[in-house]
Write the structure tokens for this entry.
Amino acid sequence: MAKRYALLFFLFSCMVLLAQQYPYDDRFQNIDKNITFIPQLGQWEGEFNHRTKLNKGVLFFKKDGFRASFLDPEFNLHDFKHQSGARTMGLAKNAPDKINGFAYDWKLLGANTNPELIGNQKRKDYHNYFLRQDSTRWRSEVPVYNGLTYKEIYPNIHLHFFGWEDNLKYDFEVLPGGDPEEISFHYEGLTEPLKVENGNLIVTTPYGTIKELAPVAWQDINGKRKQVKIEYQLKESHTVSFKIKRYKSNYTLIIDPTVVFSTFSGGSSDNWGFTATYDSGGHLYTGGISFGQGYPTTVGAFQTNFNFTGVQDPSAGFIADVVVTKFSPNGDNLIYSTFLGGNSSEQPHSMVVDSQDRLLVYGITSSLN
């Protein structure tokens, strides 16, 4: 009998922990796991807390929101890589050496200046970073998360970020005692004013529009989900809040928009495989290159160098690093990804596993370190 009670207590404790990690419904179980959140532990340049890579750009999460950075969607990274390589050998003298991009800040106004950022749904796989010459910035077993929570971003209000169908979702979880009218966010770096069309928030950039779909809101009351009327409200040309109809303040309120980076398409694929091998245990290793977009130090339009033989600034440049990934024998599980690189670009051409299952990577580099 004592063992049975101990087991029941253990199961109850696990349920409580899960409820604390995923606070209000089961949507976190169906999120887009291709969109991940990597904590900044010193492996990158820049003052931010987490980094998320999208097909169309990169998001850098900070205490008061995030910085979004995108390249010109007409830019084809694959062609550009080959043209740049050809130019260095004198075969393509007119190949471009610049990339145009755009960055903006999504900043919460009047919010907690030092919220606790918590990764949600920690994955089994992890990342290793051995980048540039300074070994004090190398990091191993960096965790990977499927979501990110800003705890108490406003009093009794949590903010959750996660991926959903290749888009970014964010939810405000307004607990009893929280005031949704405190929520307000500002877009910094835009030149065109925000617009609301058919309930959607339209963000105009030099390279196309970003759409925040019309928000929905609800409350779960006595086992039933009740919708709450809500819409965006423009306070200034670049500042937004929510206009909410009547709701019951003694129950949790969920405010749920979706960000669609619809026009940022084109040559956005930035990872290519070059080589693969396996070990005695049947684990599969793949080697390729990953183009790492650095943290933009300012918002607005920017231009960055892309030179496969010159030294590049990792905080502003676009560098091709080697990425080695290990999979389980059945290929279902990712075990780790390791990023290797110097101050310029590298490329693997072969990998070998020796008799002791040690992986050797051979390739070329244009880095001096």
The radius of gyration is 23 Å.
